[in-house]
Design goal:
Elements (H helix, E strand, L loop, with lengths): L19 H15 L11 H8 L3 H13 L3 E4 L3 E4 L6 H4 L16 E2 L11 H13 L16 H15 L8 E4 L1 H13 L5 E5 L4 H10 L2 E5 L1 E2 L2 E2 L1 H11 L3 E4 L13 H13 L3 E5 L15 H4 L4 E6 H4 L7 E4 L6 H11 L5 H13 L1 H24 L13 E5 L2 H13 L2 E2 L15 E5 L6 H16 L11
Parallel strand pairs: 3-14, 5-6, 5-9, 9-10, 10-11
Antiparallel strand pairs: 1-2, 4-12, 7-8, 11-12, 13-15
Length: about 475
């Protein structure tokens, strides 16, 4: 059976702990040892196996790349993946490559998948803040339950931050402290919608919003985009066709495409929302990355009566804080929001918010945010130099992520190339909501520990884009 595909291979994946793709590789290794997968046998295509097992293509792709790094298989572009081994049968499977390389030593993976701010050395500053809170007897709230919307002092700091860094005035009484942006998205969607409801959003949207919607039983309807984000006419058609009541949008450095709405576009979106009685949920996690001298106001400032506004401290300063704020318009069903808070977490943890409030008061938060912006600018300049015209220019002077338009096949091949070289990317299908979604790869610049690591990873991605065996120029769109 040398060289034959094994389409019926349906591995029994071990239970947790461990990442799902690692457990899939463990099952492969076990089946190789038992003889179920003999040397030279051809594995099912990644999409076929993903469908058969009910997994995402990205999970299976990562598993195949990890198996190749462990020396379990050899991948040949256009021909498939084959089990390695000492048996002479392997010669048939590897005859496409007369000199197969030796198993690649496993190296540390570089993460270009997780969209977080770059590290700017806050550990010592954090230690001092905790020590100062303890010395002044202010740590008690950190070990107690607090009111559902958060400590008043933290919400006051949040309101000051929104006014200073987002240009949005709000009353602390209208502000909710959340456990980061993802918690805020789940809270708002579960409070405003019921299972089966339709939520409008960009045709390619933030993966966390898609995950929350799927978990809550909501239907996302993707709306076509142009270089400024949501197309007003497309939004108007979608609102009329679906009778949806909620629009989720990322208007500044849209995730994943990095596009930013102009002032006139935001005004058009607000006008359509009023005409169709849409509640706007504005995720503005990246607003502080835009140039203060050239950024339009939030939609919440244009349509305050119908916009819930999300600002994520985790995305701009410190992800470990798990801290975000949501502003509530006057006509929102607050009782449902409060029930949602109790159902999803009862109350926010106090310590991160207390440190943030202290940092807002003494200027540390501004200094940390400025350091994040400076490092982000340097990393974006590096991405421009290495990726060149393959990447779209972001809709702001700084961006923690960039967008590389690629055909679906070229995107998947580039991701496979990167995984085999030890670089993790977001699967191209992860952010797509509809057929109108543009195809490509989101490259996150903040997660690598340092610039040399980012530089190595970007070169690997560039090679994957331009290598004729993975994603040649014909695949760039």
């Amino acid at each position: 059976m040398a060289g034959r595909m094994t389409p019926q291979w349906r591995p029994d994946i071990p239970p947790p702990p461990g990442p799902l793709y690692h457990r899939l590789v463990d099952a492969m290794e076990r089946d190789i040892a038992s003889g179920l997968l003999p040397a030279g046998s051809r594995l099912p295509p990644q999409r076929d196996l993903a469908y058969a097992l009910g997994l995402s293509v990205g999970t299976v792709t990562k598993a195949y790349a990890e198996a190749e790094r462990r020396g379990l298989l050899l991948a040949h572009v256009g021909r498939g993946s084959f089990i390695r081994g000492a048996s002479p049968d392997i010669a048939i499977a590897t005859s496409f490559d007369p000199a197969p390389s030796a198993p690649v030593a496993q190296a540390a993976t570089i993460d270009l998948r997780c969209n977080v701010p770059p590290r700017v050395g806050l550990s010592r500053t954090l230690e001092r803040a905790v020590a100062e809170l303890a010395a002044t007897g202010q740590l008690e709230p950190a070990v107690q339950y607090i009111q559902g919307t958060g400590l008043r002092s933290v919400r006051e700091a949040g309101a000051a931050w929104l006014a200073r860094r987002h240009g949005l005035a709000c009353d602390p009484a209208d502000l909710i402290q959340c456990n980061g942006g993802q918690h805020a998205i789940a809270l708002v969607l579960s409070s405003l919608c019921r299972p089966g409801d339709t939520v409008l959003c960009e045709a390619a949207t933030f993966y966390g919003a898609r995950t929350a919607a799927e978990h809550l039983g909501l239907t996302l309807r993707g709306v076509a985009m142009d270089e400024q984000g949501l197309i007003p006419a497309a939004l108007e058609r979608a609102a009329a066709e679906t009778r949806a009541r909620v629009l989720f949008t990322v208007p500044t450095l849209q995730n994943p495409t990095t596009r930013t709405m102009s002032l006139s576009r935001r005004q058009d979106i607000a006008r359509i929302a009023r005409q169709h009685d849409l509640t706007i949920f504005e995720d503005d996690a990246y607003y502080t990355y835009a140039d203060p001298a050239d950024r339009p106001p939030p939609i919440a400032a244009i349509a305050p009566e119908r916009t819930l506004y999300l600002a994520s401290i985790s995305k701009g300063i410190c992800p470990g804080f798990r801290l975000g704020f949501v502003t509530l318009p006057p006509n929102v069903a607050r009782d449902r929001i409060m029930r949602g808070i109790r159902a999803l977490g009862y109350c926010p943890p106090a310590l991160g918010g207390m440190i943030f409030a202290r940092w807002v008061a003494d200027g540390t938060a501004d200094a940390a945010a400025d350091a994040v912006q400076a490092e982000t600018a340097a990393r974006l300049a590096m991405a421009r130099q290495i990726l060149g015209q393959a990447m779209d220019m972001p809709g702001a002077v700084r961006s923690p992520h960039v967008w590389v338009p690629l055909s679906p096949l070229a995107a998947q091949r580039t991701l496979n190339h990167a995984l085999r070289a030890g670089v993790e990317l977001t699967p191209p299908e992860a952010c797509a909501v509809s057929r109108e979604a543009e195809s490509g790869l989101r490259i996150c610049l903040g997660a690598p520990d340092d610039r040399p690591g980012l530089e190595r990873a970007l070169h690997i991605v560039r090679d994957g884009i331009h290598d004729p065996t993975t994603g040649d120029a014909a695949g760039i769109i």
